[in-house]
């Protein structure tokens, strides 16, 4: 027995026998706080490796939801001088006293404090000690006063070449102090009304400098939340650019929802850009492009990102003015045509949005931009004709490098299927909230092999999914879908019916997605022909890397027909971290939460349901079982009293153990919903709570 044990021990694998290079690679997947505060204390060899420069050079705390003020203090004390890049973005739960310990990191070159509340005085003290800083990301909150910045702080800012600034109040922030800027990212999140209901003005604070230094600027990016104040303030930032356009500018991007009128100053800016610069990335408000010949005059070098979201740009103009009639654009890696209803048609003047696309335009696009990695064609009706081999899915299958893709539901249907099943057919699921019609529900198979027997492999969408084996993000969104939770307005009570061509899209198309072995993020919205949700089970079984799942308005609107399949699916989603569900009449009961408890990695949950119900005991049990959950947002049909009591119970029971816990439970149709939403941390609001298409939303690697 002894000899057998000795032999087994000698043949076993001892982790410490691996080379240092292999161990360092393994340790690189461990959060830095665990390395320094825990792993380092296990043995002498790991104590040495955990302090290797390759592991301490860059510290990422932005999604380390278990980190608290004590861990930050200890971390900075142990390895502060070894940290050159520190990312604390979205650490909203950390007190200001914890942020102060950043001053120990004397050698910092990059610092991201977006989402952390830092006053102007504390920022001044912090930056005064960081003389090597070259990249900075901060929030500018009400009460920020640039006059409180010390001369040492301004000296540090004068050397900063990259600045990301999120504005919650009209202000230039620290921009005037950054005289060496090469990259400027601005996020405008200013509300039009104060909490007291007063209208806010876009006027800047008296005494603020109005001379930002843009002479070295290479990248200018501005993203505006809805509201006229954001538009007023961004015009002040653009005013300096209109006087003198930086010679080295190669990326100019402005993302603005709704209508953002062009002024004389912005027209001068665009004219100057057309004369003096060659761009590699471009995004402009739709009103600046629509009806103008701007694209004909702008010059491009080696473009890697274009966004014409919501523009009326026709396919003819797209090919002629952007692609130059089929010019080689192998450098283009990201293209956003979301909401461009005519971008795949030769002209837009006499065309209806529902007319068939011109496949030759899409083919030219695919051939010219063969290295596309991110493509967004959502929020439009892209209907393929009956021509053989020219279906949108068949043409897109040539883009072998795609990593993320967003398509409207009506674009993935086979033309023959949509012809065979017109919208008036008696076997279609009703889309209204009126009296239900009894229908016979076909029994769908619950595994991949049976689906194959139904010959769904012959569909163009099945073939597309089979050709994009390395796709990581997929969005299939109804062209007329709108979330019940818009940004700054009351909840939407009525939804538009799905497109006629989308009526046949259902379980078999969802099953086709299960071919995407490396899928990490999936969004499905307004798929009307979901009858059982059987395809979801296939995805749960096959897509083991799935981390983010968003489902909205699937099947009939008066009943959650896919609940059983969803619960079966969740039992297999061991890597799922974010789950968003938006469905009327959703019942968040004991069975649902029991199934959800199998998602051991789940961190964030958001449920939006008009007339939806929940069981408080089931929610509490779920929170107790799923120790990683730090965000629970539920906007249902329950009373305000029920919602408040449950929210208070969750916070009281779990806040101490989970410092990052953020709980919002509120009636969806309550008049004060917008006031509640404004207190949600921007990280959660932007990434999961609000529904939007995220494919090619920004240029890749815009920041960290």
TrEMBL record:
Q: Which parts of the sequence belong to the F-box domain? A: 20-61
One Gene Ontology BP term is: SCF-dependent proteasomal ubiquitin-dependent protein catabolic process
Classify the source by domain of life: Eukaryota
Can you give the residue ranges of the F-box/LRR-repeat protein 18 LRR domain?
Answer: 72-661
One Pfam annotation, family name? LRR_FBXL18
Q: Name one GO cellular component term.
A: SCF ubiquitin ligase complex
Q: Which InterPro entries match?
A: F-box-like_dom_sf (IPR036047), F-box_dom (IPR001810), FBXL18_F-box (IPR047948), FBXL18_LRR (IPR045627), LRR_dom_sf (IPR032675)
Descriptive protein name: FXL18 protein
